[in-house]
Amino acid sequence: MRIAVFNTKPYDRRFLVEANAPYGHDLLFLEPRLEPATAALAAGHQAVCVFVNDTVDAEVLETLAAGGTRLVALRCAGFNNVDLAAARRLGIDVVRVPAYSPHAVAEFTIGMMLAVDRKIPRAWARVRENNFALDGLIGRNLHGRTVGVIGTGKIGALVARSLRAGFGCEVLASDLHPDPALEAIGVRYLPRDRLLRAAEIVTLHCPLTPETRHLIDGAAIEAARPGLMIVNTSRGALIDTAALIEGLKCRKVGAVALDVYEQEADLFFEDLSNEIVSDDMFQRLLTFPNVLITGHQAFLTEEALAAIAETTLRSAADAEAGRPLEDRVDAARMAPSK
Ligand code: NAD
């Protein structure tokens, strides 16, 4: 199959080329992001392969359909950037990689939690300057803390299990479908507003849907326990960034770890170190000593990249052969996501 791979980074190319050996797809690697201005580059390709911040709205899908594209293959789990109704109307199938490595994201989440709480990046910056003073680096034990996990699907369940069984936390959870295996190890499901009022740490692992957009907003922060730590490795828009900044300024929010950011599409995955970044909200976030930000890298492990490439290319082969698409994103079934 002829596949136009948008938004290609060196690591995408490496893992896709390696995984393509048994499939023999014709891969066109494109550096630009998929958006209305670049969609025509896919003309003549039956599939496009895209990532989290590519724009796959109705306008883009119409250009793709006119150019002969019949498959959008997301090399990620989330699909909030795709207009599924438009895709269906235009006869374009959408596939994703639902579970390339939940361990990659879950482990990174725990890493961020520990890093921000124990001030590891700040300590490292000091040590590099031969400053071995410990003042200002006091953290808290994770053991015994009350952690709220919002979304206990593949990733959230691993985080909840690790916190409960590994660290001995009191784990509260909120999900549309409680997981009996987690309940069996003592994870307690609560309605989201009660969880948000009770937790000392909240970690987000639900998808971005109209219902979950800004689930951490001014009201949630106001109702939260003072000093709340918020960890988000899911999707940026789960948090109202302006409200988060206010929460940090008035010291209601005690620590924040973000691997995703509401307006990340204009920033992440690019080297902007020689540029002027005009996103004032992001720049403000960077000024807080108790905020840790990474650029959407929770998924970035050897294992995950290999699994993403394999699943994506297998879906393309299935589409080409007319086989059922195991990882198809179904607009009707996934209604809450768009
Ligand atoms: P999943 O589909 O296995 O789990 C999502 C869970 O959220 C499900 O159990 C679902 O019932 C629950 N949910 C849906 N709506 C909810 C709501 N309103 N309130 C509470 N729970 C709700 O997904 P997953 O593989 O665990 O991934 C979770 C999220 O992580 C994805 O949506 C994606 O956005 C994000 N993600 C981020 C990275 C990264 O690199 N930072 C990588 C992969 C996935």
Automatic annotation (TrEMBL):
Ranges for domain D-isomer specific 2-hydroxyacid dehydrogenase NAD-binding: 110-298
Spans annotated as Disordered: 319-338
Alphabetic keyword roster: NAD, Oxidoreductase
Gene3D superfamilies: NAD(P)-binding Rossmann-like Domain
The UniProt record lists the keyword Oxidoreductase: yes
EC category: oxidoreductase
Bias (Basic and acidic residues): 320-331
EC number: 1.1.1.28
Residues in D-isomer specific 2-hydroxyacid dehydrogenase catalytic domain copies: 3-329
Highest taxon in the source lineage: Bacteria
Transmembrane feature ranges: none
One annotated GO molecular function: D-lactate dehydrogenase (NAD+) activity
Pfam families documented for this protein: 2-Hacid_dh, 2-Hacid_dh_C
PANTHER family membership: 2-HYDROXYACID DEHYDROGENASE HOMOLOG 1-RELATED (PTHR43026)
Family: Belongs to the D-isomer specific 2-hydroxyacid dehydrogenase family.
Name assigned to this protein: D-lactate dehydrogenase
Species of provenance: Sphingomonas leidyi
